[in-house]
Amino acid sequence: MRFATIGTSTITTEFARAAHAIDGVELSVAFSRDAGRAGEFAREIGAARGGSDLDAILSATGEDAVDAVYVASPNAAHADQVRRCLDAGKHVLCEKPLTLTEAETAGLFAQAEEKGLVLLEGMRSAFDPGVARVRELLPELGTVRRVSFAYCQRSSRYDLVLAGEQVNIFDPALGGGALLDLGVYCVHPLVDLFGEPQTVTRAEVTLSTGAD
């Protein structure tokens, strides 16, 4: 399977490392809006080439054709990029969150189903054996009255925020913030294991960027 990658952050580097370890998976092209960065990143991750024209990458035929696309761009770009990939007949693995709204997500899954394509959100923890084991054990606990999940990590880019810089993952315009990043690892298993909430109460700390 020949993959194109979208996004030049650390998570794409990790994806590339895993892809190289799997027989039958090939990194054909690394996309970036900047042609120079695309070529540089392609060399970094061991992709055959870089490209800065997404439509050209998706429509390529012959030796340059790709079968699937890994999307790890800023959150706000996911919906449009995934739609374009599906329109081009490509399978898609997209990092979480797939989109910023339920309606957009439902629309993309409907599009993938209509075209007979695989669309996956990169929510790996949902498939961890540990989560499956928790699900198996829940009936033995009786009535569950309280669950507390926490995930705390200091971002490597937080110093940039403190210095007054606008960073993608802390930029609301790009879908940044805690709830759409590490917070997903708490919210997703809560809904997965216990169902959708009847009510939600929230408290947040708002950064200078406007993100939670």
Write the topology of this structure:
Layout: E1 2-6, H1 10-20, E2 26-31, H2 35-45, E3 49-51, H3 54-59, E4 68-71, H4 78-87, E5 91-95, H5 102-115, E6 119-122, H6 129-141, H7 158-162, H8 184-194
Parallel strand pairs: 1-2, 1-4, 2-3, 4-5, 5-6
Can you characterise this structure?
- The protein is α/β, with parallel strands linked by helices.
- Helix content is 38%, strand content 13%.
- The protein has 8 helices and 6 strands.
- The chain has helices spanning 10-20, 35-45, 54-59, 78-87, 102-115, 129-141, 158-162, 184-194, and strands spanning 2-6, 26-31, 49-51, 68-71, 91-95, 119-122.
- Helix 4 (78-87) packs parallel to helix 5 (102-115).
- It is globular, with a radius of gyration of 19 Å.
Q: Helix count, per DSSP?
A: 8
Q: What's the gyration radius in Å? A: 19 Å
Large-scale geometry: globular
Strand portion, in percent?
A: 5-15%
Work out the number of β strands. Answer: 6
What is the H/E string? EHEHEHEHEHEHHH
Task: State the distance separating the first and last CA atoms.
Answer: 38 Å
**Poorly predicted parts:** none
Q: What is the oligomeric state here?
A: single chain
Q: Main β-sheet: number of strands, strand sense, barrel status?
A: 6 strands, parallel
What structural category do the secondary elements indicate? alpha/beta
Any key phrases for this structure?
about 40% helix, alpha/beta, globular, 8 helices, about 210 residues
Briefly summarize what is shown:
The protein has 212 residues and is of the alpha/beta class. The protein has eight helices and six strands, in the order βαβαβαβαβαβααα.
